Amino acid sequence: MEAAAPIVKFTSLQKRYGDGPLVLDGISLAVQPGDFITFIGPSGCGKSTVLKLVSGLSPWTVGELSVAGMKPRQARDRQAFIFQDATLLPWLTAQLNVELPRRLRGAPEAERAAKARQMLALVGLGAVSGYYPRQLSGGMKMRVSIARALTLAPQLLLLDEPFGALDEMTRNRLNEELLALRAQAPFTAMFVTHSMAEAVFLSNRIVVMAANPGRLHAEVAVEFPYPRPPELRARPDFQAKVNEVSRLLHEVEEPVPA
Amino acid sequence: MKKLPPILRWGLPVASGVLFVALWYGVRLVSGLQSWILPTPIEIITAAWNEHARLLAAAGHTAVGALGGFVLAAALGFATSLLLGVSRSLRAGLYPWLLVLQMTPVIVLTPIIMLWAGPGMPGIITITWLISYFPIVANMTQGLLSTDMNHVALFRMCNASRVQEMLLLRVPAAMPLYLAGLRIAATLAPIGAIFGEYMVGNSSGGTGGLGFLVYSYNTQIKIPALFATALTSCLLGFIFVAAVSWLNWAVLHKWHDSFERNDH
Question: Is A184 in the B-facing interface, judged by CB distances under 8 Å?
């Protein structure tokens, strides 16, 4: 393990909403710069909550959490969030949606427009920059969302099941594109998914979580070197890794009532 | 939703209209009612033609009152909603009183308005404003408060200020509901103006609008002309609604789902 300071560090963290039951318990984890770490687990295991805490959108209850050595809220300008749906503003064109984060920071119009054009070109949507979200397909919307998140060149990208609603072919292609974008402008990624194949293809670390309360169950290292070609998915050692994650998920599965 | 073929979309209202007029004539013939109780459509159109100068002048007067009250309601409604949308305390403190204002029948307030705003146009505009204000505030406030939580989270992640969140997110997101409020207000504004003219216009020396004509024709028992006034009021209402429908289209058609085309 390298000695670099972790970019995100959880120490014995607990989270509950109001007086409700524990959502997360005993979370201790260090995310190293450059990690692509994926959280996978049954519904209600709190994997999305983990991202919300890191983003500062939601407070934790007990324990410690630091992002780049700071409180999560203070580290917001180093991170970007990609939501389950593309969350584009429907009254703005793709171009203006990608400009939004810089616009909110008061960047000059010409600069933010140029940057947004560059980002849209990077995700292959240069030709539809003037389209409104409702004119775009699900995959295109998600590409615009990725372009918007990367326009501020974040150190840390939080992705909450971004490709869950897409068909498998589109999902695979976006997985490849995401890794390609990361190769050009490196960022640390914290990723939440239900798909084991997606987790193995993208990540160097997979954290399997258990529910009630949400906790870390096991961690799997994925050692395939980057860049990862699409053909990787067909290899037996890839399949073996997926099976390993599957087995761990099986251990934490809630017993099905008869 | 599947659209009706154009021939039916135009043909059905025309057919039902023709049927209605035929029934009208039928009732008149069978019942033997006098013209001053139930005039025939032809008698109404004749009266409208004979009185067209007065009707047009009155409609112009009413349009000014309706437009004045409508614009006032649109502007004040927008401003009020911003205040209510910004602060929970303002909402809790003010909303019940807005309801009280809405629940008080305008007819009760009319003498007071006449006393304060004076007879004639100021009173008419005040009454029109009073009638069309609440639907705008209720809709717009609802719109400001129902912003998508993920959009709000996005703005928070970008460290957006409260002002940015209001102007760049909540206000545009509330536009469809604001326009829905304006649409209701557009149907109410001519009614408010005519009611105002009926109540306060006649005391201003005979320069009233359609509301004053109603009063005047009624006392003269010019019943066909009264029907013609109703027809004119109806046309004025249509013009108002059409104008706001156009505004709604102009603001929303590019991005809002209510203008989703069926051909893709």
Answer: no
Domain boundaries, chain A: 8-252
A177 to chain B, closest Cα gap in Å: 23
Residue B135 lies in a domain: yes
Q: What is the pLDDT along chain B (264 residues), one digit of tens a residue?
A: 567 888 888 899 999 999 999 999 999 889 888 888 889 889 999 999 999 999 999 999 999 999 999 999 999 999 999 999 988 899 999 999 999 988 999 889 888 888 888 878 899 999 999 999 999 999 999 999 999 999 999 999 999 999 999 999 999 999 999 999 999 999 999 999 999 988 876 545 456 799 999 988 998 889 999 999 999 999 999 999 999 999 999 999 999 988 876 544
Domain that holds residue B242: 52-256
* C-alpha–C-alpha distance, residues A42 and A11, integer Å: 23
Residue A163: how many other CB atoms lie within 10 Å: 25
Query: Chain A contacts of B172, Cβ < 8 Å?
Result: 89, 91
Asked whether the beta carbons of A192 and A49 are under 8 A apart, the reply is no
CB contacts of B175 in chain A (<8 Å) are 91
Cα nearest neighbour of A145 on chain B: B154
φ and ψ at residue A32, rounded to 5 degrees = -90, 150
Q: Which residues contact B42 (CB under 8 A, 6 or more apart)?
A: none
Q: Is the minimum CB–CB distance between A224 and chain B shorter than 8 Å?
A: no
Q: Please indicate if any CB of chain A lies within 8 Å of the CB of B260.
A: yes
What tokens appear for B255 in the block?
């991005």
Question: Domain A8-252, what architecture?
Answer: 3-Layer(aba) Sandwich (3.40)
Number of domains chain B contains: 1
Strand A22-31 relative to strand A36-40, pairing? unpaired
The ipTM (two decimal places) reads: 0.90
How many Å separate Cα B217 from the centre of its chain?
24
CB proximity A77 to B under 8 Å: yes
CA-based diameter of chain A, in Å?
Answer: 62
Following DSSP, what letter does each residue of A143-154 receive, concatenated? HHHHHHHHTT--
CB–CB contact B150 A83 (8 Å): yes
* Torsion, CA A204, CA A210, CA A215, CA A219, rounded to 10: -20
Please state, in angstroms and rounded to a whole number, the distance separating the CA atoms of residues A190 and A35: 8
Q: Is A121 on the interface with B (CB under 8 A)?
A: no
B164 touching A, CB under 8 A?
yes
CA distance A90 to chain B (A): 6
